[in-house]
Description:
The structure is a homodimer of 453-residue chains.
Chain A: H1 4-12, E1 27-28, H2 30-35, E2 40-55, E3 59-65, E4 73-78, E5 91-100, E6 108-119, H3 136-139, H4 150-172, E7 176-177, E8 183-184, E9 195-199, E10 216-217, H5 222-232, E11 234-242, E12 255-264, H6 269-290, H7 292-302, E13 315-318, H8 325-334, E14 340-346, E15 364-372, E16 376-384, H9 388-398, H10 405-412, E17 418-424, H11 425-433
Parallel strand pairs in A: 1-2, 4-6, 7-11, 13-14
Antiparallel strand pairs in A: 2-3, 2-5, 3-4, 5-6, 8-10, 11-12, 12-17, 14-15, 15-16, 16-17
Amino acid sequence: MFGARCLLRALRFCFSAPCPRHKPSAKLSVRDALRAQNASGERVKVQGWIRSVRSQKEVLFLHVNDGTSLESLQVVADSSFDSRELAFGSSVKVQGQLVKSPSKRQNVELKAEKIEVVGDCDAKDFPLKYKERHPMEYLRQYPHLRCRTNVLGSILRVRSEATAAIHSFFKDNGFVHIHTPIITSNDCEGAGELFQVEPSSKIKVPEENFFNIPAFLTVSGQLHLEVMSGAFTQVFTFGPTFRAENSQSRRHLAEFYMVEAEISFLENLQDLMQVMEGLFKTTTTTVLSNCPEDVELCHKFIAPGQKIRTYAKKQLSNWGADLHTEHEKYLVKHCGNMPVFVINYPLKLKPFYMRDNEDSPQHTVAAVDLLVPGVGELFGGSLREERYHFLEQQLARSGLTEAYQWYLDLRRFGSVPHGGFGMGFERYLQCILGIDNIKDVIPFPRFTHSCLL
Amino acid sequence: MFGARCLLRALRFCFSAPCPRHKPSAKLSVRDALRAQNASGERVKVQGWIRSVRSQKEVLFLHVNDGTSLESLQVVADSSFDSRELAFGSSVKVQGQLVKSPSKRQNVELKAEKIEVVGDCDAKDFPLKYKERHPMEYLRQYPHLRCRTNVLGSILRVRSEATAAIHSFFKDNGFVHIHTPIITSNDCEGAGELFQVEPSSKIKVPEENFFNIPAFLTVSGQLHLEVMSGAFTQVFTFGPTFRAENSQSRRHLAEFYMVEAEISFLENLQDLMQVMEGLFKTTTTTVLSNCPEDVELCHKFIAPGQKIRTYAKKQLSNWGADLHTEHEKYLVKHCGNMPVFVINYPLKLKPFYMRDNEDSPQHTVAAVDLLVPGVGELFGGSLREERYHFLEQQLARSGLTEAYQWYLDLRRFGSVPHGGFGMGFERYLQCILGIDNIKDVIPFPRFTHSCLL
Lengths: 453, 453
């Protein structure tokens, strides 16, 4: 074995540049080219895909996009370049001078000296057509190409920014990141239908199960996070979760992402709601500040009803019956189309791990949901039952005592009051971008009857 | 639907503090308490688990740990506190004054005014014994408790730091993060044995397959990343991957994490190796700087042979036959126990997507592996075949033409030279920490015959 410092030294003399785009050559991303201040004829090289071609008498205008921003770079070429080769969708390398643009539409443009077509694109066969705005349903048929449209480009850049912002929020607040397992032998949380996992038929092993016991895809990392909050106090996970539900809804997927957090020594829902809000606000502020054009595109073209409204309000409600989608919608609407925290649900409707409020005759648990307009439940959380005997009773009631001895152990050895929550990441994106269908905010949607690529 | 700015405003007036640990109360994490400069009697509250108890004539010394650092906070209490209640493993809340410690072992200590036992811990039943250093094999039996030991605490804090550093490296270098799918219908990459996914037996649907086609757990996000590099130029993913291999090796798991990157307009292996090195160096530098004590603990107790050596060397080799573990080990040893890049493997040994070097009679592909001491293959990468006709031939040779029409499409519409790599995240941790068994660098290891919790 081998020390980290030793390995670092061993590699020190090999190369110095961290990344090809930082090489001495004047290779620039479109984003960096567009941001150039006082462009005054520097020779640069830009690479990307042609998004539009416009031919005038003496001049040819190209727009080149490399996915680093929504905006494309305008390339100006004289008529010596053959416009037939420079087709929509083709990939090109352009060398030239970065100059101030005479037009108000952009700050800079690239005066081409050399244009090389790297890969051409047959307009006849290419499913994306020049100057057409394709419906989202149409684009879903081409998961390998739709990311080259403006709208999917914007959504996926926002997704990437939000992912980074979520990691930063937790790191900045002292949370330890945990990879909770994807394959699990917990099958009885009651969080929905499960996918089972077995080696593919080609290699069936003699044993009944590869893992000796039935194994499933996780529906939540919560219980595993609780293990870790008993060592690190504040922990989070951000990974895929699964439901084998037969649903074609615009709010459900078979594979989706959850952000989950668990906090030890946390004693009331108010403290939990503060973290939920902190996460929502910090992430959203970062996204709005880092990719305003991408957010605006979604609001403008996808959700034209989208308006920046000015009222500010929140409702905290007690509730005495289970909430279905219709109820959630009603509640949000009734509260002025505002995000609504709903707290304290009846014990008999909720899973075994939620903390008993001991408030008979209502008999509720310390649960909290955050409902938002258009999407419904965005966050779900609760205090967890940290008292051994209460939890033992709940497990017995559900017939789960044997399977959850390890979970009871957490209450036998240095138990602490704690709580946590989960946020559906795709629903979060739907919410801030106003995207109607959840299938359009994930790169490769999986749902009943569909698993393309 | 509802705009992001609107939601932000709606939530603005509800709460202000981002996180409970920032509340006006003087609640401090152990890490922050230990870092306090000029401690001079501030009243603070610290929470955590008792790691040791030492009783002297008039004084009681406790060490309290909350997982925010390897080091515990020393609590000094007078004999009025009952030491029998303050047992190893119990959780406590301590209020008192933070003062300079008279001992050289620590800068500060907490003079207790109030100690509350939150959850006790029965030493008799607790599998972790006071003052014992348990073997790693023993700890693996208790995945729900082992994170409370010093060594697992350090490993998992390093894992969390490395995760954050990897996200930062790619963000800082302009890569877009992509969640590549976990469930996929690609079953023929030849990267190893597959797990198949079906709804659990309880809810077998009438159709043969939930997704209409057989679906598997991903073995790599590469092909999906290639889709995205055709839109965003530079992309990465960091997620779970799976192999249904019947292996009990110290280097293999059924579920493990891979960092994968894909870069468009990349034309030679040298540029790819620069990114691989940049990732390795930047991540390792960050880990060494942010948690030196955790790294040191691993080097000291787990890998006592670990030495910071001073030589610096690297080998680039051409190779003409397949490499097995023994060959890898030999190569690394032969090159002075240094990381070794091996490039240009025979085409007939490698998958269809690698770029043909057209260098007959050797006939190699532009592949690169980075081998490191003790671990073997840490990175694997290649240029991808971007030329339609070359790829078409390779697919035909492998009988995959029909299944990979979508992959051929990427070469029909604006194809670009590109390349990418994958790094095994657990192997990376093994490498920098000197941990012998891969099962000890992941929170919940899954392998043949084992899927605990």
